[in-house]
Amino acid sequence: MSNNGKRKPMNGEDDDDEEDDEENERDLEAWEKAYADERSWESLQEDESGLLRPIDNQALHHAQYRRRLRSLSSASATSRIQKGLIRYLYLVLDLSRAAGEMDLRPSRMVVVAKQVEAFIREFFDQNPLSQIGLVAIKDGVAQCLTDLGGSPESHIKALMGKLGCSGEASLQNALELVHEQLDQIPSYGHREVIILYSALSTCDPGDVMETIQKCKKSKIRCSVIGLSAELYICKYLCQETGGLYSVALDEAHLKDLILEHAPPPPAIAEFAIANLIKMGFPQRAAEGVISICSCHKEAKFGGGYICPRCKARVCELPTECSICGLTLVSSPHLARSYHHLFPVTPFDDVAPMLLPNQHRRPKSCFGCQQSLLNPGNMPIRCVTCPKCKQFFCLDCDIYIHESLHNCPGCESLKDSKSVD
Amino acid sequence: MTPVSSKQYADDVSLLMVLIDTNPLFWSSTAAPLPFSKFLSQVLSFLNSILLLNQLNQVMVIATGLNSCDYIYDSSLGLTTQRVETLLQKLEEFVIKDEELNKDDSVDGIGSSLLSGSLSMALCYIQRVFRSGSLHPQPRILCMHGSQDGPGQYVAIMNSIFSAQRSMVPIDSCVIGSQHSAFLQQASYITGGVYLKPQQPDGLFQYLTTVFATDLHSRNFLQLPKPVGVDFRASCFCHKNTIDMGYICSVCLSIFCKHHKKCSTCGSAFGQPQTNVSTSNQKS
């Protein structure tokens, strides 16, 4: 869609509805935008008898979600695959000349920045114990925008502050920088890099293949999301290190591709050494007490948390105590990752026309009480949980697997609980 | 129902999901400060007053039983005259069915009801309300709970809490039993709801109408009970003691109070590169 918003003068047909003569060079009227920009005819489809009907978005959305779920669960069908829960992730942003292209409006760089901001928030929501660092490639050189840290706000502020593109992109320099930084992290962490690459070339000072082998030996999992076209070097990099390579078709697709990296990837066991990490669970400081907080170095009134080892005050969790270095978390932060360890089993499809025992199907969804019969009293598509055998509507299916991570039917059954 | 203009959906329309604990072991024990019948009558008056506050308010009641959970009452089905009768009838049917599902295992003390199940059902219903368009009441959840916290439900309740936090649905808690409930304290703190353990449960109706009746918009102007002493410390998996500092397995995030050679949950040996061991099927 490279329509830049200006309409060419129409020769030939004259629309009777036109009231102004000046629309050639001005903004489009609202009714015109429906044709020029939004291409409203694309949201129509022909059904079996040749009649037009609008696209059934709900069914498409659900089919897409089911496909994704099936591909994820087929990998871990027989055994539970370990996931890397403590991740140290570097996001490499390509700010070369190619990032200024305007095929994604307003420019690739701005769209990428917006999606990266959403990704950072989602990442810390799903992986509270992990850390992110930002690297930018500009003028053939890679520089660290932020160091590895666990606070989303500081990353987003640094990201939005420096958005300018110029020069060439250098894959090797970025990988060298990331490799150097990731060498310093503890051995139990999983090392990952996500590169958002817009350029069609890479301008390297040495042999990029050597750098790729170095990354592979250091067990860094590199993934690339391309914004222009598929590049062999990116494909090779991802294959060698066990990452994912995908190319975005448009903004919505880019969002999906980036957010795919938010949940923890299946971990290759030899990559990280299991270890016991010492952590502190601070209690909330008493209200009404004045103390100097160790993160901002200023006096604060009430609130905050006290480090159990050195009794310093910190403002928010999770964090590392700046006095004694102890990792401070609260139990909900750990609990946020438990659903990766105990996922909900995917539900089974139920054929709309159930056989003679039609009366066996309940009339409403167990979760939201929505009717499972359409106005003509015909049963609509629904799903069922293989464990508790309750029926759910398609929307509850998506909500349960993507956000809630509990099956209401299984939770409402006493025997499926393992009481300690 | 007649179509409603958007002007009528002002800020103060609310959808209240009430989760009532019907655990018979709790209500028949000394831990219950008032009999179930008195409790029910106060709750029913409270529900009526909610529906009087605004014409568009909705109330849904879900019962949290010992062996199952179910929807009891939906105010959007009309029925203004027979409201109390239908609610009581469905509640009675539910309690009878719940009791039939009793297995013969002996339960220690007053047992714990299936709060995670009713929370999950309430959240599914709220998602349905969100899907119905931009004109919808503001949903919130009120838990009237008395049973103990069941440690086997910890993961499921935390999942529900985080999902409620993401959808911006506050979970209010009114604890009737004798002990505080750590799960509900965390739920109300994380989601921005109100936690209350009434000191004089005989006057429950007054607590309900003054603390829990206001809609989300008007709460900004009121002084509601503040969270005090929410304990976010974790308990170790080996002894179940609350600890200040502990050791976390980097693979499965189990918490231990002392250094171990091997993780008892996932079997990973610490300090050595591991083989592809699958995580064991245990809930904490």
From TrEMBL, chain A:
InterPro entries per record: C1-like_sf (IPR046349), Ssl1-like (IPR007198), TFIIH_C1-like_dom (IPR004595), TFIIH_SSL1/p44 (IPR012170), VWF_A (IPR002035), vWFA_dom_sf (IPR036465), Znf_C2H2_type (IPR013087), Znf_RING/FYVE/PHD (IPR013083)
Keywords: DNA damage, DNA repair, Metal-binding, Nucleus, Transcription, Transcription regulation, Zinc, Zinc-finger
Compartment annotation: Nucleus
Region (Disordered): 1-29
Record's keyword annotation contains Ligase: no
Annotated GO MF terms: zinc ion binding
GO terms under cellular component: transcription factor TFIIH core complex; transcription factor TFIIH holo complex
Pfam families: C1_4, Ssl1
Predominant location category: nucleus
Stretches assigned to coiled coil: none
Claim: rRNA-binding is one of the keywords in the record: no
ZnF locations on chain (C4-type): 307-324
Residues annotated as domain VWFA: 88-277
Gene3D superfamilies the UniProt entry points to: von Willebrand factor, type A domain (3.40.50.410), Zinc/RING finger domain, C3HC4 (zinc finger) (3.30.40.10)
Gene Ontology BP terms: DNA-templated transcription; nucleotide-excision repair; regulation of transcription by RNA polymerase II
UniProt biased composition (Acidic residues): 12-26
Protein name: General transcription factor IIH subunit
UniProtKB/TrEMBL annotation, chain B:
Coarse class of the protein's main subcellular location: nucleus
A biological process from GO: regulation of DNA-templated transcription
Residues forming coiled coils: none
InterPro entries named among the record's database cross-references: TFIIH_Tfb4/GTF2H3 (IPR004600), vWFA_dom_sf (IPR036465)
Subcellular location: Nucleus
GO molecular function, one term: zinc ion binding
Transferase among keywords: no
Record keywords: DNA damage, DNA repair, Metal-binding, Nucleus, Transcription, Transcription regulation, Zinc, Zinc-finger
Gene Ontology cellular-component annotations: transcription factor TFIIH core complex; transcription factor TFIIH holo complex
Pfam families referenced in this protein's UniProt entry, alphabetically: Tfb4
Its job: Component of the general transcription and DNA repair factor IIH (TFIIH) core complex, which is involved in general and transcription-coupled nucleotide excision repair (NER) of damaged DNA and, when complexed to CAK, in RNA transcription by RNA polymerase II. In NER, TFIIH acts by opening DNA around the lesion to allow the excision of the damaged oligonucleotide and its replacement by a new DNA fragment. In transcription, TFIIH has an essential role in transcription initiation.
The protein's assembly and partners: Component of the 7-subunit TFIIH core complex composed of XPB, XPD, TFB1/GTF2H1, GTF2H2/P44, TFB4/GTF2H3, TFB2/GTF2H4 and TFB5/GTF2H5, which is active in NER. The core complex associates with the 3-subunit CDK-activating kinase (CAK) module composed of CYCH1/cyclin H1, CDKD and MAT1/At4g30820 to form the 10-subunit holoenzyme (holo-TFIIH) active in transcription.
Homology family: Belongs to the TFB4 family.
Name of the featured protein: General transcription and DNA repair factor IIH subunit TFB4
Source organism of this protein record: Ambrosia artemisiifolia (Common ragweed)
